Amino acid sequence: MTPPTFAPHPFDFPAPVAPPHVRSGVTVWRRIADTLAGEIRDRRYADTGKLPSEAELSARFGVNRHTLRQAVSALQAQGMLRIEQGRGMFVQHELLNYPLARRTRFSENLQRQGLLPGKQLLTARCEPAAERVARELELAGGDDVLLVETLSEANGQPVNLASAWYPAERFGGLLEMLGEGAQTTEILARLGVRDYLRRESRITTQLPGEEAARLLRQSAARPLLCVESVDVDLEGRPVKYGETLFSGDRVQLLVRSEDA
Amino acid sequence: MTPPTFAPHPFDFPAPVAPPHVRSGVTVWRRIADTLAGEIRDRRYADTGKLPSEAELSARFGVNRHTLRQAVSALQAQGMLRIEQGRGMFVQHELLNYPLARRTRFSENLQRQGLLPGKQLLTARCEPAAERVARELELAGGDDVLLVETLSEANGQPVNLASAWYPAERFGGLLEMLGEGAQTTEILARLGVRDYLRRESRITTQLPGEEAARLLRQSAARPLLCVESVDVDLEGRPVKYGETLFSGDRVQLLVRSEDA
DNA sequence: ACTGATTTGTGCGTATGTATC
DNA sequence: TGATACATACGCACAAATCAG
Protein backbone atom coordinates (compact mmCIF):
# COMPACT_ATOMS: atom_id res chain seq x y z
CA MET A 1 0.00 0.00 0.00
CA THR A 2 1.34 3.39 -1.00
CA PRO A 3 1.44 6.00 1.76
CA PRO A 4 -0.45 9.25 1.22
CA THR A 5 1.83 11.63 -0.59
CA PHE A 6 2.07 14.23 2.17
CA ALA A 7 1.72 11.96 5.18
CA PRO A 8 4.63 11.62 7.58
CA HIS A 9 7.22 9.52 5.83
CA PRO A 10 10.61 8.07 6.74
CA PHE A 11 12.41 10.47 4.45
CA ASP A 12 10.55 13.43 5.85
CA PHE A 13 12.71 12.68 8.80
CA PRO A 14 15.97 14.53 9.55
CA ALA A 15 18.81 13.20 7.45
CA PRO A 16 20.09 9.96 9.01
CA VAL A 17 23.61 11.26 9.67
CA ALA A 18 23.56 15.01 10.31
CA PRO A 19 21.35 16.17 13.16
CA PRO A 20 18.74 18.75 12.17
CA HIS A 21 19.85 22.33 12.51
CA VAL A 22 16.31 23.59 12.60
CA ARG A 23 14.83 23.51 16.09
CA SER A 24 11.34 22.23 15.87
CA GLY A 25 10.88 22.25 19.61
CA VAL A 26 9.80 18.62 19.44
CA THR A 27 12.14 15.87 20.56
CA VAL A 28 13.28 13.09 18.27
CA TRP A 29 11.52 10.28 20.14
CA ARG A 30 8.27 12.23 20.18
CA ARG A 31 8.42 12.77 16.42
CA ILE A 32 9.18 9.10 15.84
CA ALA A 33 6.24 8.15 18.05
CA ASP A 34 3.97 10.46 16.09
CA THR A 35 5.26 9.15 12.77
CA LEU A 36 4.64 5.56 13.82
CA ALA A 37 1.25 6.43 15.29
CA GLY A 38 0.32 8.02 11.98
CA GLU A 39 1.47 4.96 10.05
CA ILE A 40 -0.47 2.63 12.31
CA ARG A 41 -3.49 4.85 11.92
CA ASP A 42 -3.00 4.78 8.16
CA ARG A 43 -3.13 0.95 8.39
CA ARG A 44 0.35 0.50 6.97
CA TYR A 45 0.88 -2.58 9.17
CA ALA A 46 -2.70 -3.79 9.04
CA ASP A 47 -2.01 -6.91 6.95
CA THR A 48 0.33 -8.71 9.37
CA GLY A 49 -0.35 -6.63 12.46
CA LYS A 50 3.39 -6.73 13.17
CA LEU A 51 5.76 -3.78 13.13
CA PRO A 52 9.38 -3.96 11.97
CA SER A 53 11.94 -4.89 14.65
CA GLU A 54 13.54 -2.28 16.88
CA ALA A 55 16.78 -2.71 14.95
CA GLU A 56 15.10 -2.05 11.61
CA LEU A 57 13.15 0.94 12.84
CA SER A 58 16.09 2.56 14.61
CA ALA A 59 18.14 2.12 11.42
CA ARG A 60 15.33 3.59 9.34
CA PHE A 61 15.00 6.69 11.55
CA GLY A 62 18.75 6.93 12.02
CA VAL A 63 18.59 6.89 15.80
CA ASN A 64 19.82 4.79 18.68
CA ARG A 65 17.74 1.83 19.70
CA HIS A 66 17.12 3.45 23.12
CA THR A 67 15.60 6.46 21.44
CA LEU A 68 13.36 4.30 19.35
CA ARG A 69 12.36 2.32 22.41
CA GLN A 70 11.31 5.51 24.18
CA ALA A 71 9.05 6.28 21.24
CA VAL A 72 7.39 2.87 21.07
CA SER A 73 7.04 2.63 24.84
CA ALA A 74 5.07 5.88 24.71
CA LEU A 75 2.84 4.33 22.07
CA GLN A 76 2.45 1.23 24.19
CA ALA A 77 1.45 3.28 27.24
CA GLN A 78 -1.09 4.92 25.00
CA GLY A 79 -2.54 1.56 24.00
CA MET A 80 -1.64 1.94 20.34
CA LEU A 81 0.64 -1.08 20.16
CA ARG A 82 1.72 -4.02 22.29
CA ILE A 83 5.30 -5.26 22.83
CA GLU A 84 6.16 -8.91 23.47
CA GLN A 85 9.67 -9.81 24.50
CA GLY A 86 11.38 -12.04 21.98
CA ARG A 87 8.46 -11.77 19.56
CA GLY A 88 8.08 -8.21 18.38
CA MET A 89 5.74 -5.24 18.37
CA PHE A 90 2.11 -5.57 17.35
CA VAL A 91 -0.63 -3.17 16.34
CA GLN A 92 -3.28 -2.89 19.02
CA HIS A 93 -6.28 -1.14 17.51
CA GLU A 94 -7.74 0.71 14.55
CA LEU A 95 -9.90 3.76 14.02
CA LEU A 96 -13.47 3.97 15.22
CA ASN A 97 -16.05 5.45 12.86
CA TYR A 98 -18.17 8.23 14.29
CA PRO A 99 -20.93 9.35 11.89
CA LEU A 100 -21.99 13.00 11.94
CA ALA A 101 -25.53 12.68 10.68
CA ARG A 102 -28.62 14.74 11.33
CA ARG A 103 -29.67 12.08 13.80
CA THR A 104 -26.60 11.07 15.77
CA ARG A 105 -27.08 8.52 18.52
CA PHE A 106 -23.85 7.41 20.14
CA SER A 107 -24.64 3.94 21.53
CA GLU A 108 -26.32 2.69 18.36
CA ASN A 109 -23.29 3.48 16.23
CA LEU A 110 -20.91 1.65 18.52
CA GLN A 111 -23.07 -1.42 18.83
CA ARG A 112 -23.30 -1.58 15.05
CA GLN A 113 -19.49 -1.71 14.97
CA GLY A 114 -19.47 -4.48 17.56
CA LEU A 115 -18.22 -2.31 20.40
CA LEU A 116 -19.41 -1.96 23.97
CA PRO A 117 -20.39 1.65 24.68
CA GLY A 118 -19.93 3.33 28.04
CA LYS A 119 -20.66 6.77 29.38
CA GLN A 120 -19.44 8.50 32.51
CA LEU A 121 -21.03 11.61 33.98
CA LEU A 122 -18.35 14.12 34.96
CA THR A 123 -20.26 17.32 35.66
CA ALA A 124 -23.92 18.33 35.88
CA ARG A 125 -24.73 21.84 37.05
CA CYS A 126 -26.64 25.01 36.39
CA GLU A 127 -24.74 28.17 35.46
CA PRO A 128 -25.30 31.51 33.72
CA ALA A 129 -24.82 31.22 29.97
CA ALA A 130 -21.53 32.44 28.56
CA GLU A 131 -21.84 34.76 25.58
CA ARG A 132 -21.03 32.05 23.07
CA VAL A 133 -23.45 29.56 24.60
CA ALA A 134 -26.26 32.12 24.78
CA ARG A 135 -25.74 33.02 21.14
CA GLU A 136 -25.84 29.40 19.98
CA LEU A 137 -28.95 28.59 22.02
CA GLU A 138 -30.60 31.88 21.02
CA LEU A 139 -30.98 32.94 24.64
CA ALA A 140 -30.86 36.37 26.20
CA GLY A 141 -27.67 37.27 28.03
CA GLY A 142 -27.88 36.27 31.68
CA ASP A 143 -30.20 33.29 31.14
CA ASP A 144 -29.25 30.11 32.96
CA VAL A 145 -28.09 26.96 31.19
CA LEU A 146 -27.54 23.40 32.32
CA LEU A 147 -23.99 22.14 31.73
CA VAL A 148 -23.48 18.39 31.36
CA GLU A 149 -20.01 16.98 30.86
CA THR A 150 -19.50 13.33 29.97
CA LEU A 151 -16.72 10.94 29.00
CA SER A 152 -17.72 8.32 26.46
CA GLU A 153 -15.95 5.02 26.00
CA ALA A 154 -15.92 2.08 23.63
CA ASN A 155 -14.67 -1.21 25.01
CA GLY A 156 -13.22 0.69 27.96
CA GLN A 157 -11.16 3.03 25.74
CA PRO A 158 -12.03 6.75 26.04
CA VAL A 159 -13.56 8.06 22.82
CA ASN A 160 -14.73 11.57 23.50
CA LEU A 161 -15.14 14.24 26.11
CA ALA A 162 -18.38 16.13 25.66
CA SER A 163 -19.68 19.39 27.12
CA ALA A 164 -23.37 20.02 26.45
CA TRP A 165 -25.44 23.07 27.37
CA TYR A 166 -29.25 23.05 27.59
CA PRO A 167 -31.60 26.01 28.22
CA ALA A 168 -32.34 25.77 31.96
CA GLU A 169 -35.80 27.27 31.79
CA ARG A 170 -37.08 24.75 29.30
CA PHE A 171 -35.48 21.61 30.76
CA GLY A 172 -36.10 21.91 34.48
CA GLY A 173 -35.64 18.39 35.81
CA LEU A 174 -32.83 17.34 33.49
CA LEU A 175 -29.98 17.29 35.97
CA GLU A 176 -31.94 15.25 38.51
CA MET A 177 -32.96 12.67 35.91
CA LEU A 178 -29.35 12.42 34.73
CA GLY A 179 -28.31 11.72 38.30
CA GLU A 180 -30.71 8.80 38.30
CA GLY A 181 -28.87 7.39 35.29
CA ALA A 182 -31.44 8.04 32.58
CA GLN A 183 -30.44 8.34 28.91
CA THR A 184 -30.30 11.79 27.37
CA THR A 185 -32.67 11.01 24.51
CA GLU A 186 -35.18 9.55 26.95
CA ILE A 187 -34.95 12.55 29.30
CA LEU A 188 -35.55 15.01 26.49
CA ALA A 189 -38.53 12.97 25.37
CA ARG A 190 -39.98 13.12 28.88
CA LEU A 191 -39.46 16.90 28.87
CA GLY A 192 -41.49 17.31 25.70
CA VAL A 193 -38.85 16.98 22.95
CA ARG A 194 -40.12 14.04 20.94
CA ASP A 195 -37.29 14.28 18.44
CA TYR A 196 -34.28 16.46 17.77
CA LEU A 197 -31.86 16.91 14.88
CA ARG A 198 -28.30 18.08 14.42
CA ARG A 199 -28.45 21.43 12.65
CA GLU A 200 -24.77 22.15 12.18
CA SER A 201 -21.37 20.80 13.16
CA ARG A 202 -18.19 22.85 13.11
CA ILE A 203 -15.05 20.75 13.05
CA THR A 204 -11.65 21.94 14.17
CA THR A 205 -8.51 20.34 15.54
CA GLN A 206 -6.48 21.20 18.59
CA LEU A 207 -3.94 19.77 20.96
CA PRO A 208 -5.33 18.59 24.28
CA GLY A 209 -4.82 20.43 27.54
CA GLU A 210 -3.40 18.33 30.36
CA GLU A 211 -6.87 17.59 31.73
CA ALA A 212 -8.25 16.45 28.38
CA ALA A 213 -5.16 14.37 27.63
CA ARG A 214 -5.47 12.63 30.98
CA LEU A 215 -9.18 11.89 30.67
CA LEU A 216 -8.87 10.68 27.08
CA ARG A 217 -5.68 8.75 27.94
CA GLN A 218 -3.85 10.22 25.00
CA SER A 219 -0.47 11.87 24.52
CA ALA A 220 -0.59 15.64 24.91
CA ALA A 221 1.34 15.88 21.65
CA ARG A 222 -1.31 14.05 19.62
CA PRO A 223 -4.16 16.16 18.24
CA LEU A 224 -7.88 15.98 18.96
CA LEU A 225 -10.88 16.49 16.75
CA CYS A 226 -13.17 19.15 18.17
CA VAL A 227 -16.81 19.31 17.13
CA GLU A 228 -19.09 22.23 18.00
CA SER A 229 -22.70 21.39 17.32
CA VAL A 230 -26.23 22.68 17.69
CA ASP A 231 -29.21 20.35 18.02
CA VAL A 232 -32.70 21.67 17.32
CA ASP A 233 -36.20 20.33 17.88
CA LEU A 234 -38.68 19.79 15.06
CA GLU A 235 -39.74 23.44 15.26
CA GLY A 236 -36.12 24.50 14.75
CA ARG A 237 -35.62 25.79 18.28
CA PRO A 238 -32.15 25.08 19.73
CA VAL A 239 -32.27 22.29 22.29
CA LYS A 240 -28.61 21.71 22.96
CA TYR A 241 -25.25 23.30 22.21
CA GLY A 242 -22.30 20.96 22.47
CA GLU A 243 -18.51 20.95 22.33
CA THR A 244 -17.05 17.49 21.94
CA LEU A 245 -13.38 16.53 21.96
CA PHE A 246 -12.56 13.27 20.17
CA SER A 247 -9.33 11.35 20.52
CA GLY A 248 -7.69 11.83 17.13
CA ASP A 249 -5.81 8.56 17.61
CA ARG A 250 -8.96 6.49 17.97
CA VAL A 251 -11.71 8.21 16.02
CA GLN A 252 -12.53 9.35 12.52
CA LEU A 253 -15.61 11.43 11.82
CA LEU A 254 -17.85 10.34 8.99
CA VAL A 255 -19.94 12.73 6.93
CA ARG A 256 -22.32 10.88 4.66
CA SER A 257 -24.10 13.02 2.16
CA GLU A 258 -27.67 11.94 2.59
CA ASP A 259 -29.79 11.31 -0.47
CA ALA A 260 -32.13 14.19 -1.01
CA MET B 1 -16.03 34.97 26.79
CA THR B 2 -15.61 31.74 28.69
CA PRO B 3 -13.06 29.30 27.29
CA PRO B 4 -14.25 25.80 26.40
CA THR B 5 -14.10 23.70 29.51
CA PHE B 6 -11.40 21.30 28.34
CA ALA B 7 -9.45 23.63 26.08
CA PRO B 8 -5.81 24.39 26.86
CA HIS B 9 -5.83 26.57 29.92
CA PRO B 10 -3.22 28.48 31.93
CA PHE B 11 -3.46 26.11 34.85
CA ASP B 12 -3.18 23.08 32.62
CA PHE B 13 0.37 24.23 32.34
CA PRO B 14 3.17 22.75 34.46
CA ALA B 15 2.97 24.11 37.97
CA PRO B 16 4.79 27.47 38.09
CA VAL B 17 7.43 26.29 40.57
CA ALA B 18 8.06 22.57 40.27
CA PRO B 19 9.01 21.21 36.85
CA PRO B 20 6.65 18.55 35.47
CA HIS B 21 7.57 14.97 36.19
CA VAL B 22 5.83 13.69 33.12
CA ARG B 23 7.94 13.87 29.97
CA SER B 24 5.93 15.32 27.20
CA GLY B 25 8.80 15.39 24.72
CA VAL B 26 7.90 18.96 23.79
CA THR B 27 9.96 21.93 24.91
CA VAL B 28 8.47 24.60 27.13
CA TRP B 29 8.54 27.38 24.54
CA ARG B 30 6.86 25.13 21.98
CA ARG B 31 4.09 24.25 24.41
CA ILE B 32 3.57 27.91 25.26
CA ALA B 33 3.40 28.71 21.56
CA ASP B 34 0.82 25.96 21.03
CA THR B 35 -1.19 27.08 24.04
CA LEU B 36 -1.30 30.65 22.79
CA ALA B 37 -2.07 29.52 19.24
CA GLY B 38 -4.98 27.52 20.60
CA GLU B 39 -6.28 30.47 22.59
CA ILE B 40 -6.04 32.80 19.63
CA ARG B 41 -7.88 30.23 17.55
CA ASP B 42 -10.49 29.90 20.29
CA ARG B 43 -11.03 33.67 19.94
CA ARG B 44 -10.09 34.40 23.50
CA TYR B 45 -8.53 37.71 22.43
CA ALA B 46 -11.02 38.42 19.66
CA ASP B 47 -12.74 41.37 21.39
CA THR B 48 -9.71 43.69 21.64
CA GLY B 49 -7.37 41.82 19.30
CA LYS B 50 -4.58 42.49 21.78
CA LEU B 51 -2.66 39.91 23.78
CA PRO B 52 -1.40 40.44 27.34
CA SER B 53 2.09 41.91 27.71
CA GLU B 54 5.21 39.77 27.69
CA ALA B 55 5.60 40.37 31.41
CA GLU B 56 2.07 39.20 32.15
CA LEU B 57 2.36 36.14 29.95
CA SER B 58 5.75 35.07 31.26
CA ALA B 59 4.39 35.42 34.80
CA ARG B 60 1.31 33.42 33.90
CA PHE B 61 3.30 30.51 32.43
CA GLY B 62 5.93 30.76 35.14
CA VAL B 63 8.82 31.06 32.70
CA ASN B 64 11.57 33.51 31.92
CA ARG B 65 10.74 36.35 29.55
CA HIS B 66 13.30 34.97 27.07
CA THR B 67 11.42 31.69 26.90
CA LEU B 68 8.14 33.48 26.27
CA ARG B 69 9.69 35.63 23.55
CA GLN B 70 10.91 32.52 21.76
CA ALA B 71 7.31 31.25 21.77
CA VAL B 72 5.68 34.41 20.45
CA SER B 73 8.38 34.97 17.84
CA ALA B 74 7.58 31.51 16.50
CA LEU B 75 3.92 32.51 16.29
CA GLN B 76 4.86 35.72 14.55
CA ALA B 77 6.94 33.86 11.97
CA GLN B 78 3.89 31.69 11.42
CA GLY B 79 1.72 34.72 10.75
CA MET B 80 -0.57 34.11 13.70
CA LEU B 81 0.20 37.36 15.52
CA ARG B 82 2.03 40.61 14.94
CA ILE B 83 4.40 42.33 17.38
CA GLU B 84 4.67 46.11 17.46
CA GLN B 85 7.50 47.56 19.51
CA GLY B 86 6.22 49.68 22.33
CA ARG B 87 2.58 48.82 21.61
CA GLY B 88 2.09 45.13 22.17
CA MET B 89 1.15 41.89 20.46
CA PHE B 90 -1.91 41.67 18.21
CA VAL B 91 -3.96 38.84 16.78
CA GLN B 92 -3.45 38.51 13.05
CA HIS B 93 -6.31 36.42 11.72
CA GLU B 94 -9.30 34.21 12.44
CA LEU B 95 -10.66 30.88 11.22
CA LEU B 96 -11.84 30.30 7.68
CA ASN B 97 -15.07 28.36 7.19
CA TYR B 98 -14.87 25.42 4.81
CA PRO B 99 -18.28 23.80 4.17
CA LEU B 100 -18.41 20.06 3.53
CA ALA B 101 -21.58 19.81 1.49
CA ARG B 102 -22.66 17.41 -1.21
CA ARG B 103 -21.67 20.03 -3.73
CA THR B 104 -18.41 21.56 -2.59
CA ARG B 105 -16.87 24.22 -4.79
CA PHE B 106 -13.82 25.86 -3.32
CA SER B 107 -13.65 29.27 -5.00
CA GLU B 108 -17.32 30.09 -4.46
CA ASN B 109 -17.06 29.54 -0.72
CA LEU B 110 -14.07 31.82 -0.37
CA GLN B 111 -15.54 34.60 -2.45
CA ARG B 112 -18.69 34.47 -0.33
CA GLN B 113 -16.47 35.09 2.71
CA GLY B 114 -14.79 38.00 0.97
CA LEU B 115 -11.50 36.21 0.33
CA LEU B 116 -9.37 35.95 -2.77
CA PRO B 117 -8.92 32.29 -3.76
CA GLY B 118 -5.77 30.90 -5.35
CA LYS B 119 -4.70 27.47 -6.52
CA GLN B 120 -1.27 26.14 -7.34
CA LEU B 121 -0.64 22.95 -9.30
CA LEU B 122 2.08 20.88 -7.61
CA THR B 123 1.90 17.50 -9.33
CA ALA B 124 0.03 16.01 -12.27
CA ARG B 125 0.94 12.51 -13.37
CA CYS B 126 -0.29 9.06 -14.25
CA GLU B 127 0.54 6.15 -11.94
CA PRO B 128 -0.70 2.66 -11.07
CA ALA B 129 -3.44 2.77 -8.44
CA ALA B 130 -2.43 1.92 -4.89
CA GLU B 131 -4.67 -0.61 -3.16
CA ARG B 132 -6.54 2.03 -1.18
CA VAL B 133 -7.09 4.26 -4.22
CA ALA B 134 -8.28 1.36 -6.36
CA ARG B 135 -10.74 0.31 -3.68
CA GLU B 136 -12.20 3.80 -3.31
CA LEU B 137 -12.54 4.31 -7.07
CA GLU B 138 -13.90 0.76 -7.53
CA LEU B 139 -11.11 -0.11 -9.94
CA ALA B 140 -9.33 -3.39 -10.55
CA GLY B 141 -5.85 -3.72 -9.07
CA GLY B 142 -3.24 -2.53 -11.54
CA ASP B 143 -5.44 0.07 -13.25
CA ASP B 144 -3.86 3.46 -13.84
CA VAL B 145 -5.00 6.61 -12.07
CA LEU B 146 -4.25 10.29 -12.58
CA LEU B 147 -2.78 11.99 -9.52
CA VAL B 148 -3.27 15.73 -9.16
CA GLU B 149 -1.78 17.58 -6.20
CA THR B 150 -2.66 21.19 -5.52
CA LEU B 151 -2.06 23.86 -2.91
CA SER B 152 -5.02 26.17 -2.31
CA GLU B 153 -4.75 29.63 -0.84
CA ALA B 154 -6.98 32.39 0.45
CA ASN B 155 -5.57 35.91 0.39
CA GLY B 156 -2.13 34.41 -0.15
CA GLN B 157 -2.30 32.20 2.96
CA PRO B 158 -2.11 28.44 2.34
CA VAL B 159 -5.41 26.74 3.18
CA ASN B 160 -5.11 23.15 2.07
CA LEU B 161 -2.95 20.61 0.32
CA ALA B 162 -5.01 18.28 -1.82
CA SER B 163 -4.22 14.98 -3.51
CA ALA B 164 -6.85 13.81 -5.96
CA TRP B 165 -6.97 10.57 -7.95
CA TYR B 166 -9.08 10.09 -11.09
CA PRO B 167 -9.59 6.88 -13.12
CA ALA B 168 -7.09 7.25 -15.98
CA GLU B 169 -9.10 5.30 -18.51
CA ARG B 170 -12.19 7.45 -18.18
CA PHE B 171 -10.48 10.86 -18.04
CA GLY B 172 -7.89 10.72 -20.78
CA GLY B 173 -7.03 14.35 -21.48
CA LEU B 174 -7.32 15.62 -17.90
CA LEU B 175 -3.64 16.22 -17.18
CA GLU B 176 -3.09 18.14 -20.42
CA MET B 177 -6.10 20.38 -19.81
CA LEU B 178 -4.91 21.04 -16.26
CA GLY B 179 -1.56 22.11 -17.67
CA GLU B 180 -3.39 24.67 -19.76
CA GLY B 181 -4.85 26.15 -16.59
CA ALA B 182 -8.45 24.96 -16.91
CA GLN B 183 -10.71 24.57 -13.86
CA THR B 184 -11.38 21.05 -12.56
CA THR B 185 -15.16 21.34 -12.75
CA GLU B 186 -14.93 22.60 -16.31
CA ILE B 187 -12.54 19.82 -17.36
CA LEU B 188 -14.79 17.12 -15.94
CA ALA B 189 -17.74 18.68 -17.76
CA ARG B 190 -15.81 18.55 -21.03
CA LEU B 191 -15.01 14.87 -20.34
CA GLY B 192 -18.67 13.99 -19.98
CA VAL B 193 -19.31 14.50 -16.25
CA ARG B 194 -22.07 17.10 -16.21
CA ASP B 195 -22.29 17.11 -12.45
CA TYR B 196 -20.73 15.32 -9.51
CA LEU B 197 -21.50 15.05 -5.80
CA ARG B 198 -19.59 14.34 -2.64
CA ARG B 199 -20.65 10.89 -1.45
CA GLU B 200 -18.70 10.64 1.78
CA SER B 201 -16.09 12.50 3.77
CA ARG B 202 -13.94 10.90 6.45
CA ILE B 203 -12.38 13.38 8.81
CA THR B 204 -9.30 12.70 10.88
CA THR B 205 -6.53 14.77 12.40
CA GLN B 206 -2.79 14.35 12.17
CA LEU B 207 0.44 16.22 12.60
CA PRO B 208 2.06 17.43 9.40
CA GLY B 209 5.14 15.86 7.90
CA GLU B 210 7.99 18.26 7.15
CA GLU B 211 6.88 18.70 3.55
CA ALA B 212 3.26 19.44 4.46
CA ALA B 213 4.28 21.85 7.24
CA ARG B 214 6.52 23.74 4.83
CA LEU B 215 3.93 24.01 2.07
CA LEU B 216 1.13 25.01 4.44
CA ARG B 217 3.50 27.38 6.28
CA GLN B 218 2.49 25.96 9.63
CA SER B 219 4.38 24.70 12.67
CA ALA B 220 5.08 20.98 12.56
CA ALA B 221 3.72 20.79 16.10
CA ARG B 222 0.28 22.12 15.15
CA PRO B 223 -2.28 19.62 13.89
CA LEU B 224 -3.98 19.38 10.52
CA LEU B 225 -7.49 18.37 9.55
CA CYS B 226 -7.41 15.53 7.06
CA VAL B 227 -10.40 14.83 4.84
CA GLU B 228 -10.69 11.71 2.71
CA SER B 229 -13.49 12.00 0.22
CA VAL B 230 -15.16 10.27 -2.69
CA ASP B 231 -16.99 12.19 -5.41
CA VAL B 232 -19.45 10.37 -7.64
CA ASP B 233 -21.30 11.26 -10.84
CA LEU B 234 -25.07 11.28 -11.10
CA GLU B 235 -25.07 7.52 -11.80
CA GLY B 236 -23.15 6.94 -8.56
CA ARG B 237 -19.89 5.94 -10.23
CA PRO B 238 -16.76 7.21 -8.43
CA VAL B 239 -15.19 10.11 -10.29
CA LYS B 240 -12.53 11.23 -7.84
CA TYR B 241 -10.90 10.08 -4.64
CA GLY B 242 -9.24 12.80 -2.63
CA GLU B 243 -7.08 13.30 0.44
CA THR B 244 -6.96 16.89 1.59
CA LEU B 245 -4.87 18.32 4.41
CA PHE B 246 -6.20 21.54 5.92
CA SER B 247 -4.23 23.87 8.13
CA GLY B 248 -5.85 23.39 11.54
CA ASP B 249 -4.73 26.90 12.51
CA ARG B 250 -6.63 28.56 9.71
CA VAL B 251 -9.61 26.39 8.84
CA GLN B 252 -12.71 24.94 10.39
CA LEU B 253 -14.87 22.43 8.55
CA LEU B 254 -18.59 23.04 8.44
CA VAL B 255 -21.17 20.28 8.19
CA ARG B 256 -24.65 21.61 7.57
CA SER B 257 -27.39 19.08 7.84
CA GLU B 258 -29.33 19.63 4.68
CA ASP B 259 -33.09 19.77 4.82
CA ALA B 260 -34.50 16.61 3.38
C1' DA C 1 16.39 -31.36 24.26
C1' DC C 2 19.92 -28.55 22.17
C1' DT C 3 21.79 -24.71 19.15
C1' DG C 4 21.94 -20.46 17.00
C1' DA C 5 19.55 -16.52 15.25
C1' DT C 6 16.31 -13.00 16.17
C1' DT C 7 13.99 -9.91 19.12
C1' DT C 8 12.99 -7.34 23.26
C1' DG C 9 14.71 -5.76 28.06
C1' DT C 10 18.27 -3.51 30.92
C1' DG C 11 22.44 -1.29 32.75
C1' DC C 12 26.23 1.96 32.40
C1' DG C 13 28.84 5.86 30.72
C1' DT C 14 29.06 10.17 28.04
C1' DA C 15 27.76 14.29 25.51
C1' DT C 16 24.47 17.82 24.43
C1' DG C 17 20.35 20.71 24.79
C1' DT C 18 17.01 23.01 27.73
C1' DA C 19 15.47 25.72 31.57
C1' DT C 20 16.22 27.65 36.01
C1' DC C 21 18.52 30.44 39.46
C1' DT D 1 27.38 35.34 33.13
C1' DG D 2 28.15 31.14 35.14
C1' DA D 3 26.54 27.20 37.90
C1' DT D 4 23.19 23.69 38.38
C1' DA D 5 19.62 20.25 37.35
C1' DC D 6 17.39 17.53 34.24
C1' DA D 7 15.82 15.44 29.91
C1' DT D 8 17.44 13.85 25.65
C1' DA D 9 20.23 11.04 22.61
C1' DC D 10 24.06 8.02 21.67
C1' DG D 11 27.12 3.76 22.07
C1' DC D 12 28.24 -0.61 23.84
C1' DA D 13 27.36 -4.83 26.30
C1' DC D 14 24.69 -8.41 28.04
C1' DA D 15 20.39 -10.79 29.77
C1' DA D 16 15.94 -12.88 28.71
C1' DA D 17 12.34 -14.59 25.72
C1' DT D 18 11.01 -16.67 21.32
C1' DC D 19 11.41 -19.42 17.29
C1' DA D 20 13.22 -22.36 13.53
C1' DG D 21 16.03 -26.07 12.57
State the main characteristics.
26% helix; alpha+beta; two-stranded antiparallel sheet; Chorismate lyase; 2 domains; Arc Repressor Mutant, subunit A; homodimer; six-stranded antiparallel beta sheet; 260 residues; DNA-binding; elongated; 8 helices
The strands making up the biggest β-sheet of chain A line up spatially as 4-5-6-9-8-7
Oligomer: homodimer
Round the Cα radius of gyration of chain A to an integer and report it. Answer: 22 Å
Return residue spans of chain A where pLDDT drops below 50 for at least 5 consecutive residues: 1-21
- The helix fraction of chain A, in percent, is 25-40%
Description:
2 copies of one chain form a homodimer. With 260 residues, chain A is an alpha+beta fold. Chain A is built from 8 helices and 10 strands. Chain A folds into 2 domains: 22-91, Arc Repressor Mutant, subunit A (Orthogonal Bundle), CATH 1.10.10; 96-259, Chorismate lyase (3-Layer(aba) Sandwich), CATH 3.40.1410. Chain A has a 6-stranded antiparallel β-sheet with strand order 4-5-6-9-8-7. In chain A, helix 1 (28-41) packs across helix 3 (65-77). The model of chain A is unreliable at 1-21 (pLDDT under 50). At the A-B interface, helix 1, helix 5, strand 7, helix 8 and strand 8 of A face helix 1, helix 5, strand 7, helix 8 and strand 10 of B. Strand 10 (251-256) of chain A pairs antiparallel with strand 7 of chain B, so a sheet runs across the interface.
